[in-house]
Design goal:
With about 300 residues, the protein is of the alpha/beta class. The chain has helices at about 5-20, 20-30, 30-45, 60-85, 110-120, 135-145, 190-195, 225-230, 240-245, 280-295; strands at about 50, 60, 95-100, 125-130, 150, 160-175, 200, 220, 240, 255, 265-275. Strands 3, 4, 5, 6, 9, 10 and 11 form a seven-stranded mixed sheet that branches. It has a two-stranded antiparallel ribbon with strand order 1-2. A two-stranded parallel sheet has the order 7-8. Helix 1 packs across helix 3, helix 1 crosses helix 4 (about 60-85) and helix 5 (about 110-120) runs antiparallel to helix 10.
Length: about 300
């Protein structure tokens, strides 16, 4: 049920999200001509063009970019408003927007999949959205209300959010099969030797040990999949979570280096906005996450 509804804004946001009218017609269940009429009516109401469409393809105008961002926020807030009113009749409904960092599904101590399953097994009419992003971006989205809850190794915590410790993730340094260190005996590999090779890192998690002479990464990636790909080229060393390496069955393609000296842990937290906690869907999901991790974290 939509108590607050603006069909023109919903159509506009859907067109932008779909990259044009063609795909939007399937998402909205209406014809391209009907979409065109709605966009034209929106532009007439606003008094300016929000997008260019034609042989050159679909693109937003400068004002359209601003209108899209504001329209998306308005629709998100409207869905939250609907959910808050409908929950007065003991119905778990509305949006549940969850943010996580990449590759959390194989972190066994987190049990993210189990948490989701437990939540989805409950009677509900919730629209679920999962966003994968860096801890910095997740923090920003939590503050603005784009997300209700996020799970990540939040090293830089802010006063506007509440954090609950969940579990830890172990990282070690790896090289690929084609790297010069892959076949070198263990007694020939020390920190001085490792310091002579290029290192790649995730942009939001610089885990290189201060014991290494060079802490300047030669390549920066956005996620662990990209990290593993660069390591496998044989040109870079890089830190990866142990669970991630094991899940990819890469024991023959990656070698762990100096495990007694080069290992790190990341602490995962569940972060929420205090104003979200009255939302039933958020409360239930938080309960499920804490229950899944509780046996290990002592929560």
């Amino acid at each position: 049920m939509k108590l607050l509804r603006n069909t023109l804004l919903e159509t506009f946001v859907a067109v932008v999200d779909c990259g044009g009218f063609t795909d939007a017609q399937f998402a909205l269940g209406i014809t391209q001509s009907a979409i065109s009429i709605r966009i034209r009516d929106l532009e007439a109401a606003l008094g300016y063009r929000v997008c260019e469409r034609g042989r050159g393809g679909f693109r937003l105008t400068e004002r359209g970019e601003i209108a899209y961002a504001k329209a998306r926020d308005i629709l998100r807030n409207a869905r939250d408003f609907d959910a808050e009113l409908l929950e007065l009749r003991d119905v778990t409904t509305g949006d549940l927007r969850i943010g996580v960092v990449d590759a959390v599904n194989t972190l066994s101590d987190l049990n993210f999949g189990k948490s989701l399953k437990q939540f989805l097994n409950r009677p509900n009419d919730v629209r679920l959205e999962i966003v994968v992003a860096s801890p910095t971006e997740l923090t920003q989205r939590l503050i603005t209300g784009e997300l209700h809850v996020a799970i990540a190794p939040f090293r830089n915590q802010v006063a506007d959010l509440t954090y609950t410790k969940l579990c830890q993730e172990e990282h070690r340094l790896y090289c690929g099969r084609d790297h010069p260190l892959f076949a070198l005996p263990n007694d020939k590999i020390d920190l001085d030797v490792i310091s002579g090779y290029q290192i790649c890192q995730r942009s939001y998690s610089m885990l290189v040990s201060p014991e290494l002479q060079s802490t300047d990464p030669k390549a920066v990636v956005a996620n662990m999949e990209a990290m593993a790909t660069l390591i496998e080229t044989g040109h870079y060393l890089g830190p990866l979570p142990v669970h991630f390496v094991e899940s990819r069955s890469q024991s023959g393609r990656l070698r762990e280096l100096a495990p007694d000296r080069l290992h790190w842990t990341s602490t995962f937290y569940l972060a929420t906005r205090t104003t979200n906690l009255h939302r039933r869907a958020v409360e239930l999901f938080v309960e499920d996450v804490l229950e899944s991790c509780g046996a290990r974290t002592g929560l």
